[in-house]
Sequence to fold (384 residues):
Amino acid sequence: MLRATVRPSLLLVMAEDEVDPDRRAYAVWVSEVMLQQTQVATVINYYTGWMQKWPTLQDLASASLEEVNQLWAGLGYYSRGRRLQEGARKVVEELGGHMPRTAETLQQLLPGVGRYTAGAIASIAFGQATGVVDGNVARVLCRVRAIGADPSSTLVSQRLWGLAQQLVDPARPGDFNQAAMELGATVCTPQRPLCSRCPVQSLCRARQRVEREQLLASRSLSGNPDVEECGLLAGLWEFPSVTWEPSEQLQRKALLQELQRWAGPLPATRLRHLGEVVHTFSHIKLTYQVYGLALEGQTPVTTVPAGARWLTQEEFHTAAVSTAMKKVFRVYQGQQPGTCKGSKRSQVSSPCSRKKPCMGQQVLDNFFRPHITTDASNLNSAAQ
Fold:
């Protein structure tokens, strides 16, 4: 379990050591109201000043509205402070100075206390095993369970609350809820989540899906896959090709070995770089570095492995080859169409190479595009 590190410094200075459950609940209540729409760093000084001035519900209930507004100045959303004082007065005047003990009664009896705030107070101050869902927790739950539906929709929100209730630790519900909030705020962030530092990464279904995608992508970049395996160019002929190597020397060596595999011994000194071709297959953009090797009167090997053949220039133009291979051949012929970019030397890509997906929120976004399902059973099964 990840123990919260920021929020306890704000709200549990009193709450953890406070024996009186009403004063403990009051401390949690103040902090949660201040944290609505406001960052922790901004709230800390306001919270400290508030608790020093009004350390108990009775103190706040006896304060004037002008005093409350003065202390709240700069925190924004002034109605929060007014409702907090109204609630304190109700507890003192109507409930005998005792805070309601459950999330249900807190929400029912105190003005301005919604479902989230009630659950936070009840779990942290009174140890009620009730889950909470704020924006951070919703993001964590959606990623851990790979729920791609829109969390702001009523149906999905209800399911997330139910899931939070299933997951909350009955022995330490307050710590669990704060840990979930903190996880979303500091690790499972909207942009560039720190997955490698996440204590629940082994349970995260979204992370598992990302890793599978990355594995498939890495496999597509390794070796020299067959044209038939690519699907995009199935059944077409291509020139011998190899994938990119980190240096020119390794690149030439790999290409020469590939050519010799098809045609037998060849003179390495005659391998020459001719130019570059950029071609787009649907959504896949590929760059080819074109090399040529002239035999200069030598008779080509007549026996070639299965799946290869020698062609004359005339035969090439009538053969089943892709547009990309035709561009490659035009470079060989010395032409410079618009898609050819001179002799710039960058990477060599095979027809089956694909751009490797990057790490972080861009990959995660693929699994969390808003999609509102009308079938409750589908979402329910995703949350199991």
User: Anything to note?
Assistant: The mean pLDDT is 76. The first strand starts at residue 271 and ends at 281.
